[in-house]
Amino acid sequence: MKKDAALQASTSKRDQPAPWSRIPSLVAGAFGLMTIKEGGGVLFWDAAARSAAGAYVPFVLWFNFLAGFAYVGAGVGLWERARWSVWLSFGILTCTAAVFAALGLHILSGGAYENRTVIAMTLRTSVWLALAVWAHRSMARDPARANLEGDDK
């Protein structure tokens, strides 16, 4: 009887994520909210932000703005340790890398751009590479630590 209680207690402690493991989900969510705010400002609200943006590349701006919503969703999924958030993280990474490549083609064809767009896309790609790898390692490879109840997770 004592062994069962001890085993159950140790198992439930092991199944709980470490407090530091919530940091990537907070990064994803905060990154998403900032992306929505900044992109939305340039696209919809703030003439000063639009002017300050300079020679922004519209397809990159629209992608980043819309991707911000996926970032927030991924942050929620990572917080909940939902399996789908691993796939979403890799999807965001893949789409970001594809848009970054398209930006490269835009630049090579003589299109106008800002250096900060290249820096921002490098940062976005790097952040989502790190988040996707972290999500995969922490959840997909260790199903005992992931939230595996039900098909909707």
Describe the structure.
The protein is mainly α and 153 residues long. It contains 6 helices and no strands. Helix 2 packs across helix 3 (47-53) and helix 5 packs antiparallel against helix 6. The longest helix is centred in the last third of the chain and has 26 residues, at 115-140. The two termini are 33 Å apart. The mean pLDDT is 86.
Feature tags:
153 residues; mainly alpha; 6 helices; single chain
The counted number of beta strands is 0
Estimated radius of gyration? 19 Å
Largest sheet: none
| Element-by-element helix/strand order | HHHHHH
Produce the secondary structure layout.
Elements: H1 2-15, H2 23-45, H3 47-53, H4 58-80, H5 84-108, H6 115-140
Helix pairs in contact: 2-3, 2-4, 4-5, 5-6
Quick structural overview:
The chain is mainly α. Helices cover 77% and strands 0% of the residues.
